[in-house]
Amino acid sequence: MQDEKDGQERQAAIASNESRQHRLKAALRENLKRRKSQARGRGGVASSEPAEGRLDDASDGEPGR
């Protein structure tokens, strides 16, 4: 009898985890769609480089510094 209860609890936990994974996947897909749409609206894909240039532009011209 205890084994049946443990089995049912285990199945419920697995179903709950699968449901959660499904919701997370759907949320990630929607987030990606929204971000792509926003990038298209801005006229292009945003880059990770700053618009003004790199932070080390103030170097004195010596390489490696």
Q: Report the sheet-strand fraction.
A: under 5%
Tell me the radius of gyration: 25 Å
Task: Bin the helical content.
Answer: 55-70%
Low-confidence stretches: none
- Please identify the structural class as seen in this structure: mainly alpha
The secondary-structure element order is: H
> What does the largest sheet look like?
none
Describe what this molecule looks like in 3D.
By secondary structure, this protein is mainly α. The protein has one helix at residues 2-41. The longest helix is centred in the N-terminal third of the chain and has 40 residues, at 2-41. The model has no long low-confidence stretch (mean pLDDT 79).
Defining traits:
65 residues; mainly alpha; 1 helix; 0% strand
In short:
With 65 residues, this protein is mainly alpha-helical. It is built from one helix and no strands.
Write the layout of secondary structure elements.
Blueprint: H1 2-41
